[in-house]
Design a protein that fits this description.
253 residues
Length: 253
C-alpha cells in the first residue's frame, strides 16, 4: 500500500500515483474539516449574524425573495467555516509541499507558515473593529437626502465578509517580505529604497477592496504601510538568507 499521509523525506522518491493519492487524501481531510466547520457555523448562524449586525447600529436589513434568507445564511456560514478551517487547510498545504523543501528551506518556511493564520485573523479583526463601522456609516450617509437607501441583507453580508477576507490577505505583507528576503530574492535595503513604489501598490490594492470611500481607504492603507515597514524591520533582523542559500547566490553574482 502506498503511503498517503506519512512524513516523506526530502530525498525520498515516490510515484505519481502516490502523489495523487496524497493529494486526494488531503483534499478529503480539508473538505471534511470545512464541512464540519460549516455545520457548526450554520448551527450557530444567529450568533454570526448578531456579530456582523453590530456595525449597523440598529439598521434593519431587507430580503427581496423567499429564498434569500436561506441562501444568505448558507453563504455566511461558508465564509465563517473557511475562517475557522484556515489553520487546518494551511497545515495540509504545508505538509504536502514540505518534502520539496530542503532542511534549510524548511527553517524558512515553517515560521512563515505559523504567522499566516495569526496575521489573517489580525486583519479580519482590524476590519471588523476599525474599518467596517466607519465604512458603513460613510456609505449609507453619503448624499442621503437624494436617496431612499435600503440595505439588503445579502449585499451587506457579502460586503462585510469580502472586506474582512481581503484585509486578512493584505495583512500577509510581512510574510511576503520575510519570504523574499530569507530566500535571497531581495534585501531590506532594496525594499527601503523602493518603498514609494510599494506604497503606490498598497494604495492600488486598497482601492480595489469593496470599501471605496476615502475615509475607509485611509484606514486600510495606514496599517498595511505600517506592516510593510514592520516587515522590513523583521527582515533586517531575521530575514537574512542562511549560508546555504546566501553562498550560492553570491557565487552566481
Amino acid at each position: 500500500m502506498p503511503p498517503k499521509l506519512r512524513p516523506i523525506a526530502h530525498d525520498e522518491e515516490i510515484s505519481l500515483v502516490d502523489h495523487l493519492d496524497e493529494i486526494r487524501a488531503r483534499l478529503v481531510i480539508g473538505a471534511i474539516v470545512v464541512g464540519v466547520a460549516g455545520a457548526l457555523c450554520y448551527w450557530q448562524n444567529h450568533l454570526i449574524f448578531e456579530i456582523l449586525d453590530k456595525p449597523l447600529d440598529g439598521r434593519e436589513l431587507l430580503t427581496l425573495s423567499p429564498t434569500e434568507p436561506f441562501i444568505t445564511t448558507l453563504t455566511l456560514s461558508f465564509y465563517a467555516s473557511l475562517l475557522l478551517s484556515l489553520p487546518v487547510l494551511l497545515y495540509q498545504l504545508y505538509a504536502f509541499i514540505l518534502p520539496a523543501f530542503s532542511p534549510t528551506e524548511r527553517k524558512v518556511a515553517l515560521p512563515l507558515l505559523l504567522m499566516v493564520p495569526v496575521l489573517f485573523i489580525a486583519g479580519v479583526a482590524f476590519c471588523y473593529f476599525i474599518v467596517l463601522s466607519p465604512a458603513i456609516d460613510f456609505l449609507l450617509s453619503f448624499n442621503a437626502d437624494e436617496f431612499n437607501t435600503q440595505l439588503r441583507a445579502r449585499d451587506y453580508y457579502s460586503f462585510a465578509a469580502l472586506t474582512m477576507l481581503a484585509l486578512g490577505l493584505l495583512f500577509q505583507v510581512p510574510i511576503g517580505i520575510l519570504a523574499v528576503t530569507r530566500l535571497g530574492l531581495t534585501t531590506p535595503e532594496k525594499l527601503r529604497q523602493h518603498r514609494r513604489y510599494a506604497y503606490l501598490g498598497i494604495a492600488v490594492l486598497a482601492a480595489m477592496l469593496p470599501t471605496i470611500d476615502p475615509v475607509t481607504l485611509v484606514l486600510e492603507i495606514i496599517p498595511i504601510i505600517l506592516l510593510y515597514e514592520g516587515g522590513i524591520v523583521l527582515a533586517a533582523a531575521f530575514g537574512r538568507p542562511p549560508p546555504e542559500i546566501a553562498e550560492p547566490l553570491a557565487e552566481a553574482k
